[in-house]
Amino acid sequence: MKPRLQKLLSRLKQENLDGLIVSSPANISYLSGFISSDAYFLVSKKDCIYFTDSRYMEEVRPKLKTVASLKKIEGSVFNLIADTCIGLGLERVGFEERHLPYAEYKKIKEFLKAKLYLIPSHNLIENLRQVKEPKEIEKIREALRITGSALEFIKDFIRPGLAELEIAGELERFIRYNGAGEAAFDIIVASGPNSAYPHHRPGGTKTQKGLPLLIDLGVDYLGYKSDLTRVFFLDKIKGLNRRIYEVVLEAQSRSIASIKPGIEIARIDGLSRNYIADKGYAKFFGHSLGHGIGLETHEAPSISAKNDGILVPGMVFTVEPAIYLPGKFGIRIEDMVLVTNKGCEVLSGFIDK
Amino acid sequence: MKPRLQKLLSRLKQENLDGLIVSSPANISYLSGFISSDAYFLVSKKDCIYFTDSRYMEEVRPKLKTVASLKKIEGSVFNLIADTCIGLGLERVGFEERHLPYAEYKKIKEFLKAKLYLIPSHNLIENLRQVKEPKEIEKIREALRITGSALEFIKDFIRPGLAELEIAGELERFIRYNGAGEAAFDIIVASGPNSAYPHHRPGGTKTQKGLPLLIDLGVDYLGYKSDLTRVFFLDKIKGLNRRIYEVVLEAQSRSIASIKPGIEIARIDGLSRNYIADKGYAKFFGHSLGHGIGLETHEAPSISAKNDGILVPGMVFTVEPAIYLPGKFGIRIEDMVLVTNKGCEVLSGFIDK
User: Fold this and answer.
1) Chain B residue with the nearest C-alpha to that of A72
2) Which of A130, A234, B127, B301 is the most exposed place for a label (fewest CB within 10 A)?
3) Which of residues 96-135 of B touch A (CB under 8 A)?
4) Which residue in B has a C-alpha nearest to residue A306's C-alpha?
5) How far is B342 from chain A (nearest CA, A)?
6) Closest CA to B127 of B273, B349, B314, B353
7) Residues B21 and B162 reside in one and the same domain
8) B120 interaction partners in chain A (CB closer than 8 Å)
9) What is the pLDDT along chain B (353 residues), one digit of tens a residue?
10) Residue B222: how many CB atoms within 10 A of its CB?
11) Are the Cβ atoms of B101 and A102 closer than 8 angstroms?
């Protein structure tokens, strides 16, 4: 983890900070190498400190190695963090403004007793995390391998008359027998009209011949996530189903074909969006085209019209155009790509569509 | 949901607030009756407004009925919330300081352009949620019924040589075939020495004859959670295992025997803690005795030495004393209780120990 801390310390210097209070669990995992919850992490040039309570102490201790010292939370963690900052002689300490609730900010501020400046900081670690290291990409590949096997398995399993929740249950079981630690998010299984809800929660609705069955599945492999959507039809795909499916598929391939270093992120979103609009479905595709993925299912970069950044080699993100026809059905096709030096690799390209 | 909104509006009046910006998903679910994520809710005497984006609009609309109006988030939600507050002519608006990140507070504050006071508020809805309505208790009972069936099923399934993750996978599948929407949290399956980590993440460790196997399972039934821990032994329980198990069981029954309206919450924690201390294991029981449970797995009241409140009929919480011997094993026994008018009902009492 040391090189990551080094990079972060350089960023802090640029921001004129000599410390950073990290409260995002994913950011703490990234810096400490230990999948963390109920923890805080203090980064500074002099020392890095991992704060956690009695439930995690024994588990964390051997894993931190030389990366950070460990302090046990007893009483107020905010008092402890403030005292530690003061004890280290820090002068300007940042905090993650997107990940610190107002109440916690207020408490740390009070305990600091104006002995140093507490300064909001924004996405310092998230921006580092956008570009994946080879070891991270390997874990993402493994998460996708498990996802692909799970979809192969479920393709053989599905037939008319199954409840969405039964399919979700089979997937939850399968991934744990095949190397995943858990699902990356609540698996979406949406039959027929339910597929028109982008974030449908699986329930008792039964699969039916000829109706689309949308499955959006991700797994966690050693902290790294996958996220993939396929639509099955339990029959020959025809009529409006087929027309919409083809529009979404073509939209996706137009976006993917243009992914390479240096290109504007908003343009990648626009390629799918404009194609869908040309076909007359603009108002049925409301969400952004995709999102970065790694330690979190949704992380930077957001692949949306609002992102004014450009693509950089090592970024990993989803490409998931969709058309949702309320009361009828929805089609979303989601793959994961890696920006390479010359273009991109569709990391989930081996999974049948 | 209307009576809940009425109660909240009375509380706001006491706090001298004429509006409240609700950002906790569980609190929004409680007020709106719709399980929410990526949403905000504004409560005021004049109108209540549910803010969400295109992904959820179609799903939310029919469910809000007369409880609240619906506004679609396009552009900045913080601008929209601020404009809505100004438009309603509000003067003193609270926000949930534990559930609003500093960055979001800052943005709402900016958009309000000092046209009204933005005031931190604390646990207003959480305190209402502590006392469950009969309909909520019925959902919790159903969540426990599913949990009990799952443990019956797994008792027949377990044998030496199974990976923790395989057991977790079987449970994940079973609960979805039996009425649960999902697990309430990452199911803990901890074999042998892993059981000494209170929040162990299941992995490849295999069950072994004579080693304790700790399972901490909760399910979600229509938004309401269960949370229950049992330890199995795959053999006759003996030696230190037996001694520790008996201490934890006796600690738990001492706490449960004293639960009734009016008693200090800290005392309930103390009864288990003191008994465990008397037996010489004080430093091996680091966490609090339990926690309220309902729409969230962990909610008010916390059953800990720090809580200076008293028990009230309708509270539902866990009682989970434990002893964790690092490197050896841990025993935790967790049940769920309901405070009744005269004493308490162990809601999970039908599940074998």
Assistant:
1) B286
2) B127
3) 97-103, 105-106, 120, 122
4) B75
5) 34
6) B314
7) no
8) 102-103, 106
9) 589 999 999 999 999 999 999 999 999 999 998 877 789 999 999 999 999 988 788 788 888 877 889 999 988 999 999 999 999 999 999 999 999 999 999 999 999 998 999 999 999 999 999 999 999 999 999 999 999 999 999 999 999 999 999 999 999 999 999 999 999 999 999 999 999 999 899 999 999 999 999 999 999 999 999 999 999 998 888 899 999 999 999 999 999 999 999 999 999 999 999 999 999 999 999 999 999 999 999 999 999 999 999 999 999 999 999 999 999 999 999 999 999 999 999 999 999 99
10) 14
11) yes
How far is the CA of B203 from the CAs of A188, B150, B155, B164, B169, in angstroms? Answer: 24, 20, 19, 6, 11
Q: Which of A88, A105, A129 is the last residue before a domain boundary?
A: A129
Residue found by looking up tokens 């009864």 in the block = B271
Does any domain span residue A176? yes
Q: Which residues of B touch A54 (CB under 8 A)?
A: 286-287
CA-CA distance, B99 to A24, in Å (whole number)? 14
Name the residue range of residue B161's domain: 134-346
Sign of CA dihedral B299, B305, B306, B312: positive
Helices (H) and strands (E) in chain B, counts: 10, 19
Dihedrals φ, ψ of B72, to 5°?
-85, 130
B18 sits in which H/E element:
none
CB atoms < 10 A from the CB of A243, how many? Answer: 14
A positions 284-303 inside 8 Å of B (CB): 286-287
As a whole number of angstroms, the distance between CA B332 and CA B320 comes to 6
Alpha carbon of residue B78 to chain centroid: 28
